[in-house]
Structures are given as structure tokens and as C-alpha cells.
Amino acid sequence: MPKGGNLFTFLPRLRWQLKATLLFILTALIVRLGWVIQHTVTSSDPVGKSTSANYLSKMASSNYASNLGYFEASISHNESNEPLILQSPVINMISYEEADEVTVGSTGVTSHEKMSEISKKTDPPQFENMKITSHPDDLTTSSSKTECKNTWSVEPRGKPASKIVFLKTHKAASSTVQNIFLRYALERNLTIALGFKELGSAQLGWPNFFRKDFAYPSTRGTYDVICHHMRYSENVATVMPSETIYITVIRDPIRVFQSYFFYYQLDRQFKIAGETDPLETFSKNPGLYEHKWEKVSPVRNVMMFDLGLKKEDMNDENMIEGKIKEIEQRFHIVLIAEYFDESLILMRDLLNWSNHDILYFKQNIMSNMTKRTISDATKHRLEQWNKADVMLYQYFNATFWANAKKFCLEKLAAEVNAFRSQLKQWQADCVLDVITGNKMYDPLYKTYNPNALSYRLRPGGHGNDTCVNLAKTEIAFTEEMLNRMKKTKSLNFDANYAITIKKGSPEEKELLKRLAAIKG
């Protein structure tokens, strides 16, 4: 008993101290139990679903993220163990929609790998009234203050990579990635492979397997960059140096197929456009329609088709798995469109580039189309129909997060948010507003599709080469590169594609058909 007190004053103090001690012990036990559970889950899931969920949790709690407003509202995880969703009311660079509609509303970014549960929305860009200003130095991999070790990069680093093959897949954010490589090539006077102008320089023989005679020959024998549509084959290696870095991008297969189906108006080709749900009608009997279009372009597994899987192997799991292994051996990184900025940071590190080199404005984004919902039954049928693409996506989604872990998830989260800050600044500095292609009269920024978004630059943006090139469309950029290489004589423009194509062959028929379409 304390001196100067009595039993009646001491007992209440003792009870209070005991309660405080018990509360402290209970809190410590709860924290310890939570650590054990987290440790158990993490150690049993090295590259699984929890990896992207944990990463997104870090992004949501990041000071960068809260300051920029990219993940403002909440983190939710419902009782049915559905995937982690981050809700944001503002423009979100992660949620990528190429050749798809832009939808006003909150953005949901899911970490789940199951194809049928991935559903993204993208808000229209919002640009502030700002003038062209100087930008801070790029934040590279050394900018992060986290302690985790980066095992993704190889030290010491060499020169920035300038020999690159980008396999441009259809409807998978590839036009935006292509703009990055075109800008890099333009700024450094690199030689890129271009198709014959009469057949469309933006195509390298697609949908045929790539052959070197589908492009103007390089006067020195090899190219620096290939980044236009082609169907991959090992012939690519014959026109590129041995140190070439191979890159491609993939996206949720159901979203790819949906976008591809309506972009190329397959519902009209199959005479089912009048149906209430043409995609559902197609999914119930896809084989009935395939033969009507397969000689023109693929009607299933669009990404695996671009990556070189033969049509006759589309149903063979062993052949699909073998092709996936070939892709893994050849391609140094496979970008994931749903994690676009994260992918670019890893790509930047691989290429030893700067943040400035990977700046982008979204390209080929559709504006005023109505979002089409897909029922669970239709999704399931389309997953079966696009089985090879589903297997491709599942495999490289896992390897992507394995690479992200090597880079360090905390570091990646910090760098992504720093990069997004730069993107936001460039958009504010360069862009006055965004309009549809049918309202754009400047050929540099006028989109091929009249419903696709075009960027109208601020007065100061027109005088800034970076702003101009970020907003430039593929058609205008390709034409500029073609004219530049005529001046530098980097390509042999006297070559004749008809010399190397056999008369009466499928290749000749396809090329003549394309030529007639262009001239018609």
C-alpha cells in the first residue's frame, strides 16, 4: 500500500492497472496471431492470388496514392472471399481499355486471376489548366527508400537497350505500348521494320506468319525495332541482332475477344447483328461461324494466334503448353494490360530506360460505345472457346507477379505512384481536351476510327516534341517514320514484295485482297 494512502483509495487504482495490463497483453496476442496468419498465407502462395492483392493493399495505403487520388475511396473484401477491389472515382492508369469504350464511373481493379471475374471501367481523362513547365528529373529504381532487395535488375547496368521486338497483340493496350517504342526510335534515329506502303506500312504480313520479305529490307541487314502488327515466327530472329529484347502485352482474354468481336464487326459478318446479344448467340455455337471468317483472320484465341500458335493446335493442351514455354523462353517480359503502369516500370528497368522514355497517353480508346455486359454463362462458353488465351493469361499473370516480387512490391508501389504523378503532370501540361476522331482535323492526331479518342493539345503543347509525339496516332507516326527512313536511306525502298511471293499461293491471294481493299 502506498505511503499516505488507505485501502479504499488503493484498490480502485489496482483494478485500473490490472485492466490496463490485461488489455495490453490481449492486444499483443491479437497482433501476434495476425502476423502468424499472414505469414502462413504468404509463404504458401509465392506467386498466387494474394500477391497482387497484397500489392494493391500497399498501393492503397501509400502516401503517394492518397495524394494523387488514384485509390481514394476504400479497400473492400466481402464475406464470400471475392477478389480484392480498389474503388477510385478518378482516372485510373491501371485500368486499361484499348479499342473499348470509356465509361464514366468508379474504377474497379481486381487482383483475381479468374478470367470471368475481371471487369474494368475507365473514367474519361480530366485535365487541369496548366502551362508547359520544366519537369523534375526522372525517378529511377534508386529513388525508392524501401529496404527490400531488387533481384529483378542485373547490376551493373549497361547502356539503354535499343534493339527491341514488340509483338503487338490485338486489343490489349498494344497501341499505347507501340507509341512508346515509336517515340523512342524517333528520338534516337533508330531503324524500324515497316511493311510495304502499298499494303499498309503498319502491317507486317499479318495474319500470315512473319517473313522478312513482308517488310522493306534494312540496308544494314537488321533492324533496331519491330513494333507493328505481325504474326510471330522464328523468322523474326533472322532480321534482328542477337542482343534483341523481346516484349509483348496480354489482357484478360474475354475482354480481348469481346473488343475484337465488335471492333471488326464480326456480328455483321456472321449476320447476327440483329440479335439481342450477338456475342451470346455466337458463343452458343462458335464453330458454326468460324469457317466463315477464319481464312481472313482468327475467330478465337486472338493473342495466341498473334504469338504464333497454329490454328490446328488451338484445342490441344499439350501444344498450347508447349507454345507457352516457347514464349517464355523467347520473350524477356510479358506485360499485363490490367497492371499497365506496373508492367511499364518493370519494362523500364529491364531496358535500362528512364521514366521519360515510358511516358504515354492512351491510344485507340473508343469513346461513345455502350458497355456490353456478358452473362456468366456466356463468359464460361467464351473461356472454353478461347482456352489457349486463358491458359496464356493465367501463366503469365503468375510470372508477372513473380517478377514484381523480385523487383520488390513496396518499391514497385512507390515507383508506380511517382510515375503516375509524372503522367498526370504531362497530361495537364500538354492536353487541352479529348475529342472523338470525327471532330479532329489535324492529321497528326486524327484517329482511324471516328469514335476513337483524339487529343487536342494546348498552344504550348504544339511546340513541345514530347507532347506532340505522345498524342500522335499510329498512322501519322508510321508515315513520319517511313519518310524519315527514306531520307536516311535506312531501308531499301526499291524492294518489291511480289518477287518473293509464289504465284497462286495463299499469301499472294491475301496480299492482293488487301491491296484491292486499300485502292478501293
Automatic annotation (TrEMBL):
<dbReference type="InterPro" id="IPR009729">
    <property type="entry name" value="Gal-3-0_sulfotransfrase"/>
</dbReference>
<keyword id="KW-1133">Transmembrane helix</keyword>
<feature type="compositionally biased region" description="Polar residues">
    <location>
        <begin position="139"/>
        <end position="153"/>
    </location>
</feature>
<keyword id="KW-0325">Glycoprotein</keyword>
<dbReference type="InterPro" id="IPR027417">
    <property type="entry name" value="P-loop_NTPase"/>
</dbReference>
<keyword id="KW-0472">Membrane</keyword>
<keyword id="KW-0812">Transmembrane</keyword>
<protein>
    <submittedName>
        <fullName>Galactose-3-O-sulfotransferase 2-like</fullName>
    </submittedName>
</protein>
<feature type="region of interest" description="Disordered">
    <location>
        <begin position="107"/>
        <end position="153"/>
    </location>
</feature>
<keyword id="KW-0808">Transferase</keyword>
<keyword id="KW-0735">Signal-anchor</keyword>
<keyword id="KW-0333">Golgi apparatus</keyword>
<dbReference type="GO" id="GO:0001733">
    <property type="term" value="F:galactosylceramide sulfotransferase activity"/>
</dbReference>
<comment type="similarity">
    <text>Belongs to the galactose-3-O-sulfotransferase family.</text>
</comment>
<dbReference type="GO" id="GO:0000139">
    <property type="term" value="C:Golgi membrane"/>
</dbReference>
<dbReference type="GO" id="GO:0009247">
    <property type="term" value="P:glycolipid biosynthetic process"/>
</dbReference>
<feature type="compositionally biased region" description="Basic and acidic residues">
    <location>
        <begin position="111"/>
        <end position="123"/>
    </location>
</feature>
<dbReference type="Pfam" id="PF06990">
    <property type="entry name" value="Gal-3-0_sulfotr"/>
</dbReference>
